């Protein structure tokens, strides 16, 4: 029986980061993964999505702004097959880099499905493996619709396997995945419908952001359907009909469901261990990422805290530092995490929304600064695009506890503000920084 210092279940971003960091500190490490290395992010998530968003941005630049800047394009054509070679080639190169790094660090990669047989051993490909420590980083998968005809719908995973674009699509969901997929499909020329159950997408975000997003969607597309909850889907020729309460509401070529994600914990043998889960399969951990079995840790989507790739990476590396490099803790701080939605325009957010801040501290302790301006990039091309920025500040010292923006370039400007907020920066300290002009980011240090 092979024995390792650390056995990692899951070869996604969190598992890979943990394994490499542990091996760099001298640990003997194995990573068990049945599918492609890189997990959701690299294969069917943030990486191919971002490249698709770049393609959408190029399309927007040509169609909306090119003429205003003096560029004339005749016979514009988007060859999806050529694009797929670029996107999927990048993904393949990323996967190859993981195997190379494993080899350099001495990490053993085992391709197969690993299942616990007890608290100290897992079985993979008919072989038992023993570990001093284990890390569960098995991630999640798109939730499926459980309604009549739900099998006719597809998920974000399916989208990244498409070989051609449909003429029309409905994207069901109000979260960031639905918003992003609807945005790129619309920009690439597909008649796109974004279908949400409530009055707007991204309902948990600051209302300034969602107001700005709805304004942009209303002006530029895709087609937004609010207060809509399809409960049946039917085939009619090559199209899928979408029904609500027996009434036909929409007919499209494809339907993408992006209503959330389920954790991958139901098929890894947890019943043979002392690890506990919630009724939804989320693995219960303490602040140090330990499960109910102290030598079994878990990070990433499977613990249901913050489902973001860099969070899983940071948590996994901290576990490795604690176990193999004498770090005092394997816990990380889950506050003030910068987040970007690659919508059109992009959204960036850090910390508490205005509503959350008031609920937590009381309205009298909160002061909010706002800025509205128009993107120079768009305005110079006779295309008005409003940008909305906000700072949420606490008490007399005005410590910045929330930063939010929607507009051109916001996705690349908030990382540094995240550092400042993590250090407890105040509005006065923001103001003391000389603005970079002309940029959108200067609005965050000039608000009055």
Shape: globular
- Count of alpha and pi helical runs: 12
**Total strand count, please?**
21
| Terminal CA distance | 66 Å
Strand content: 25-35%
Instruction: Output mean pLDDT.
Output: 97
Q: What is the structural class?
A: alpha/beta
The biggest beta sheet is recorded as: 7 strands, mixed
| Rg (CA only) | 24 Å
Oligomer: single chain
Helix content: 25-40%
Poorly predicted runs are none
Please describe what this structure looks like.
By secondary structure, the protein is of the alpha/beta class. 30% of the residues lie in helices and 25% in strands. The protein has twelve helices and 21 strands. The chain has helices spanning 13-24, 39-44, 46-65, 80-105, 156-159, 176-187, 207-220, 309-324, 354-361, 376-379, 415-422, 427-431; strands at 2-9, 29-33, 108-111, 115-118, 121-124, 127-136, 140-142, 168-172, 191-195, 223-225, 232-236, 239-244, 247-252, 254-257, 261-263, 296-298, 339-341, 347-351, 366-374, 386-394, 399-406. Strands 1, 2, 3, 4, 5, 6 and 16 form a seven-stranded mixed beta sheet that branches. A hairpin with a 4-residue loop joins β20 and β21. α1 (13-24) packs parallel to α4 (80-105) and α1 (13-24) packs parallel to α8. The longest helix has 26 residues, at 80-105. The protein is globular. The relative contact order is 0.13. The model has no long low-confidence stretch (mean pLDDT 97).
